[in-house]
Write a structure and sequence with these properties.
about 325 residues, alpha/beta, Arc Repressor Mutant, subunit A, D-Maltodextrin-Binding Protein, domain 2, ten-stranded mixed sheet, two-stranded antiparallel ribbon, 13 helices, sequence-specific DNA binding
Length: about 325
Amino acid sequence: MRELNLNSMSCFEAVARLGGVSRAAEELGISPSAVSQKIRKLEQQFGVKLFRRERQRLLLTLDGERLFQTTTQAFRMMRDVHSAIVRQRENRHFILRVSPSFGVRWLGPRLTRFLDANPGWDLRVDATPDFSDFETEVVDLDLRYGAGGWAGLHEEPVLHDFVLPICAPGYLETLREKADDPVGQLRAARLIDSVKTHYRWDFWLARHGAMGERMAYPLRFDRSSMALQVARDGGGVVLESATLAAPELERGTLVPLSPGFEVIRFPAYWLVCPPRHASRRIVRIFSDWMREEGAAHDARMAGFLEGLGCSIRDESGPQIPGAEHLRGPGDRGADQ
């Protein structure tokens, strides 16, 4: 037996389901004569009559009924699968990579607003300190912490960082009992070191003339979220991100060590992807949202810190000779 022709079977199923050649032709988008020809060829292939005409109506024969029960179920299943595939294709599948602390402390609390504004998204967020290898990994977009300069990739800064020494209010009172001036308080403080941030204590202390023989960092963390938690618990002074510590600063559970120390502001969070990804509609939608969220946060944070009496200094990133321990634009493993 020759292989069944799918077009002929489709014509037969439509005629049997709709009860007429004209209706089937209209649904299939072909002429009635073409439908009739397909049915005749199918009957010739099977060697039986599939329809009988009765009072200008087409009725299924017994063989036709048996064939129809099978074909209509098969075509219904194919239509259902087709609809599912189309729906899946139309769903907005988006894979984003972010650093762990930033993902938990900044992005996570804002994602609901994005999803409410963009229903139907299938969003996956990978929180990892490693940057994406877009040639070997399936990732649409990186939201990277860094200083920019990733060769061969599209990059755009969307959020600033605001770096300053902060600690718990109670710990600050203890330091004030030991020294009157902020530099003396720093020298008496237990310093918490976030080892994967762009601005670290060595650079900052040298710049502010606060280096001393006993300056040491007895607490070191490779996660900003851990460093901030220890500082909030009164463990010491941390040189950290007001962007990540915004909730604690606004509640007063963390405070600036001194308004006399400048807040360093620099473009720290970047949208990064291959140039071919930048034109994707799904990437453009998320990028537009990030620009708006980033601009609103930057304005709010700058106003808040200035309200505390802090002055803000704009920079492009750490500029200190021989600071190999500071993260550069090509480094991997950023936590912030």
